[in-house]
Amino acid sequence: MGTNENKQVIQTNFAELAKGNGEPLLSSLADDVQWTIIGTTVLSKTFNGKQAVIDGLLVPFREALVDGHIHIHVDNILADGDYVVVQGHGIAMTKRGVAYNNTYCWVYRFAQGKIKALTEYLDTELVTRAFG
Asked: CA 20 to 30 Å from 19, out of 43, 62, 69, 91?
């Protein structure tokens, strides 16, 4: 896949996530994906493999939010070859009653048509405040 196809995958993923549909994202992850959340928060680590992402990040995160997902607004998408970069911001509320309105930069690396690696940059202080 080329730059335009990779960018389209990400655009589709975010459009579907906005509707609460995470299946396109899951389908686009390589089985051996590495998803890294930067920092030293309770969420910060590298999740190795699609199942680790689901079990260790997505399910617990969804369970911690009032309506089960973050309402993401994409500000910019830049693509070059195997890389797609997304700037965005999200709005959510935790079940603990803390607003979780974060800003993000996601750097995706594609290989063989799948997301092979993802690095997520975000406001780590807000993560700590919202999730401990």
From this structure: 43
- pTM given for the model: 0.93
- pLDDT tens digits, one per residue of 93-110: 999 999 999 999 999 999
Residues 102, 91: Cα–Cα separation, whole Å: 7
Distances (CA, A) of 80 to 3, 10, 121: 6, 13, 19
Of residues 9, 15, 25, 3, the one with CA closest to residue 83: 3
The tokens of 18 are what?
């906005």
- Tell me the domains of the chain and their CATH numbers: 3-131 (3.10.450.50)
In sequence order, what are the residues at sequence separation of 6 or more whose Cβ sits closer than 8 angstroms to the Cβ of residue 121? 38, 104, 105, 106, 107
CA 107, CA 83: separation in Å to the nearest integer? Answer: 7
